[in-house]
Amino acid sequence: MHPKVFFVSVILTCIICACSNVQLEDDVSPLEKSFLKLIAVDDVNDSLHVDIVYDERTEYKYGDDIVVLIKNTSNQEIFLPSKPSALRAFVLSDNSWVEVKNDITYLGDGVVLAASEDALSQLINGIRPVINSELEGFGNEVNVRVLIMGEFIVNEKKTGTVIAAFADLVMRK
Protein backbone atom coordinates (compact mmCIF):
# COMPACT_ATOMS: atom_id res chain seq x y z
CA MET A 1 0.00 0.00 0.00
CA HIS A 2 1.25 3.44 -0.87
CA PRO A 3 2.27 5.49 2.23
CA LYS A 4 -0.02 8.40 1.32
CA VAL A 5 -3.04 6.09 0.97
CA PHE A 6 -2.20 4.47 4.30
CA PHE A 7 -1.85 7.88 6.00
CA VAL A 8 -5.18 9.13 4.58
CA SER A 9 -6.85 5.87 5.71
CA VAL A 10 -5.56 6.32 9.23
CA ILE A 11 -6.76 9.94 9.36
CA LEU A 12 -10.22 9.01 8.05
CA THR A 13 -10.49 6.16 10.56
CA CYS A 14 -9.61 8.52 13.43
CA ILE A 15 -12.21 11.05 12.28
CA ILE A 16 -14.90 8.37 12.00
CA CYS A 17 -14.08 7.01 15.47
CA ALA A 18 -14.13 10.49 16.99
CA CYS A 19 -17.50 11.23 15.41
CA SER A 20 -18.95 7.94 16.59
CA ASN A 21 -18.08 8.76 20.23
CA VAL A 22 -19.92 12.06 19.98
CA GLN A 23 -22.95 10.29 18.58
CA LEU A 24 -22.96 7.86 21.51
CA GLU A 25 -23.12 10.75 23.99
CA ASP A 26 -25.94 12.36 21.98
CA ASP A 27 -27.83 9.04 21.95
CA VAL A 28 -28.32 9.07 25.75
CA SER A 29 -32.07 9.06 26.39
CA PRO A 30 -33.76 11.95 28.20
CA LEU A 31 -34.56 9.49 31.02
CA GLU A 32 -30.88 8.67 31.50
CA LYS A 33 -29.85 12.33 31.20
CA SER A 34 -32.31 13.27 33.95
CA PHE A 35 -31.00 10.47 36.20
CA LEU A 36 -27.39 11.56 35.67
CA LYS A 37 -28.41 15.12 36.47
CA LEU A 38 -30.20 13.89 39.61
CA ILE A 39 -27.12 12.12 41.00
CA ALA A 40 -24.71 14.84 39.77
CA VAL A 41 -21.66 12.57 39.42
CA ASP A 42 -19.28 12.58 36.46
CA ASP A 43 -17.63 9.18 37.06
CA VAL A 44 -20.52 6.72 36.62
CA ASN A 45 -20.01 2.99 35.92
CA ASP A 46 -16.32 3.60 35.27
CA SER A 47 -14.24 3.45 38.47
CA LEU A 48 -16.96 1.61 40.36
CA HIS A 49 -19.26 -1.18 39.14
CA VAL A 50 -22.30 -2.86 40.65
CA ASP A 51 -23.78 -6.14 39.43
CA ILE A 52 -27.01 -7.81 40.49
CA VAL A 53 -26.30 -11.29 41.87
CA TYR A 54 -28.84 -13.95 40.95
CA ASP A 55 -27.07 -17.16 42.09
CA GLU A 56 -29.74 -19.88 41.92
CA ARG A 57 -32.67 -17.51 41.51
CA THR A 58 -34.00 -16.28 38.20
CA GLU A 59 -35.81 -13.19 39.49
CA TYR A 60 -36.37 -10.93 42.47
CA LYS A 61 -39.80 -10.36 43.99
CA TYR A 62 -41.24 -7.34 45.86
CA GLY A 63 -39.79 -7.33 49.38
CA ASP A 64 -36.71 -9.42 48.50
CA ASP A 65 -33.24 -8.32 49.51
CA ILE A 66 -31.38 -7.63 46.28
CA VAL A 67 -27.86 -9.03 46.46
CA VAL A 68 -25.24 -6.92 44.71
CA LEU A 69 -21.56 -7.31 43.91
CA ILE A 70 -19.73 -4.00 44.19
CA LYS A 71 -16.36 -3.77 42.43
CA ASN A 72 -13.67 -1.11 42.53
CA THR A 73 -12.17 -1.01 39.03
CA SER A 74 -9.96 2.02 39.69
CA ASN A 75 -6.40 2.22 40.93
CA GLN A 76 -7.45 4.12 44.10
CA GLU A 77 -9.21 3.10 47.29
CA ILE A 78 -12.92 3.94 47.52
CA PHE A 79 -14.89 4.73 50.68
CA LEU A 80 -18.53 3.60 50.77
CA PRO A 81 -20.44 5.26 53.64
CA SER A 82 -23.08 3.46 55.69
CA LYS A 83 -24.81 6.60 57.00
CA PRO A 84 -26.29 7.81 54.77
CA SER A 85 -26.13 4.54 52.93
CA ALA A 86 -23.98 4.33 49.82
CA LEU A 87 -26.64 1.99 48.40
CA ARG A 88 -29.81 3.63 47.13
CA ALA A 89 -32.83 2.30 45.23
CA PHE A 90 -34.95 3.95 42.55
CA VAL A 91 -38.06 2.80 40.73
CA LEU A 92 -39.17 3.86 37.28
CA SER A 93 -42.44 5.78 37.64
CA ASP A 94 -44.06 7.98 35.00
CA ASN A 95 -40.89 7.91 32.90
CA SER A 96 -38.60 9.12 35.68
CA TRP A 97 -36.48 7.48 38.37
CA VAL A 98 -37.98 8.01 41.84
CA GLU A 99 -35.97 7.18 44.95
CA VAL A 100 -37.57 4.71 47.37
CA LYS A 101 -36.58 3.76 50.88
CA ASN A 102 -33.89 1.15 51.43
CA ASP A 103 -35.23 -0.97 54.31
CA ILE A 104 -31.80 -2.22 55.42
CA THR A 105 -29.80 -0.45 58.13
CA TYR A 106 -26.04 -0.77 57.75
CA LEU A 107 -23.73 -0.84 60.77
CA GLY A 108 -20.49 1.07 61.22
CA ASP A 109 -19.19 4.14 59.46
CA GLY A 110 -18.61 2.54 56.10
CA VAL A 111 -16.23 0.31 54.21
CA VAL A 112 -13.14 0.87 52.11
CA LEU A 113 -12.74 -1.00 48.82
CA ALA A 114 -9.11 -1.54 47.89
CA ALA A 115 -7.75 -0.61 44.47
CA SER A 116 -8.74 -2.96 41.64
CA GLU A 117 -5.61 -5.10 41.70
CA ASP A 118 -6.20 -6.03 45.35
CA ALA A 119 -8.28 -9.02 46.47
CA LEU A 120 -10.32 -6.71 48.72
CA SER A 121 -11.58 -4.64 45.79
CA GLN A 122 -14.99 -6.39 45.81
CA LEU A 123 -17.85 -6.50 48.27
CA ILE A 124 -21.12 -8.42 48.42
CA ASN A 125 -23.96 -6.43 49.97
CA GLY A 126 -27.73 -6.16 49.85
CA ILE A 127 -30.50 -3.63 49.49
CA ARG A 128 -34.24 -3.94 50.15
CA PRO A 129 -36.26 -1.37 48.18
CA VAL A 130 -39.60 -0.56 49.80
CA ILE A 131 -42.26 -0.76 47.10
CA ASN A 132 -45.36 0.31 48.98
CA SER A 133 -48.99 1.16 48.29
CA GLU A 134 -48.08 4.64 47.02
CA LEU A 135 -46.34 2.89 44.15
CA GLU A 136 -48.91 0.17 43.55
CA GLY A 137 -49.61 1.40 40.03
CA PHE A 138 -46.81 -0.86 38.86
CA GLY A 139 -48.91 -3.96 38.50
CA ASN A 140 -47.01 -7.23 38.48
CA GLU A 141 -43.53 -5.81 37.94
CA VAL A 142 -41.43 -2.73 38.56
CA ASN A 143 -38.14 -1.53 37.09
CA VAL A 144 -35.62 -0.96 39.87
CA ARG A 145 -32.26 0.79 39.70
CA VAL A 146 -29.69 0.07 42.39
CA LEU A 147 -27.21 2.94 42.83
CA ILE A 148 -23.96 2.85 44.79
CA MET A 149 -22.08 6.07 45.52
CA GLY A 150 -18.64 6.39 47.07
CA GLU A 151 -15.66 8.66 47.30
CA PHE A 152 -12.01 8.21 46.39
CA ILE A 153 -9.58 8.20 49.30
CA VAL A 154 -5.84 8.85 49.18
CA ASN A 155 -3.61 8.30 52.21
CA GLU A 156 -6.70 7.46 54.27
CA LYS A 157 -8.32 10.86 53.49
CA LYS A 158 -11.44 11.48 51.42
CA THR A 159 -10.64 13.43 48.25
CA GLY A 160 -14.09 14.90 47.62
CA THR A 161 -14.29 13.10 44.27
CA VAL A 162 -17.59 11.23 44.25
CA ILE A 163 -18.08 8.21 42.01
CA ALA A 164 -21.13 6.09 41.31
CA ALA A 165 -22.37 2.95 39.61
CA PHE A 166 -25.80 1.52 38.95
CA ALA A 167 -27.49 -1.62 37.71
CA ASP A 168 -31.10 -2.24 36.71
CA LEU A 169 -33.43 -5.14 37.31
CA VAL A 170 -37.13 -5.99 37.20
CA MET A 171 -38.85 -7.01 40.44
CA ARG A 172 -42.09 -9.00 40.27
CA LYS A 173 -45.00 -9.48 42.65
Estimate the global geometry from the Cα principal axes.
globular
Question: What do the pLDDT scores average to?
Answer: 82
Name of the CATH class of the largest domain: Mainly Beta
**CATH architecture grouping of the largest domain:** Sandwich
CATH topology-level fold name of the largest domain: Immunoglobulin-like
* Helix content range: 10-25%
What is the name of the CATH superfamily of the largest domain? Immunoglobulins
Put simply, the count of helices is 2
Radius of gyration: 20 Å
Main structural class? alpha+beta
Oligomeric grouping of the chains: single chain
| Beta-strand content bin | 35-45%
How are helices and strands ordered from N to C? HHEEEEEEEEEEE
Note the topology.
Elements: H1 3-26, H2 30-39, E1 43-44, E2 48-52, E3 60-61, E4 66-72, E5 77-81, E6 87-93, E7 96-100, E8 110-113, E9 122-127, E10 141-154, E11 157-172
Parallel strand pairs: 1-11, 3-11
Antiparallel strand pairs: 2-4, 4-9, 5-8, 5-10, 6-7, 6-10, 10-11
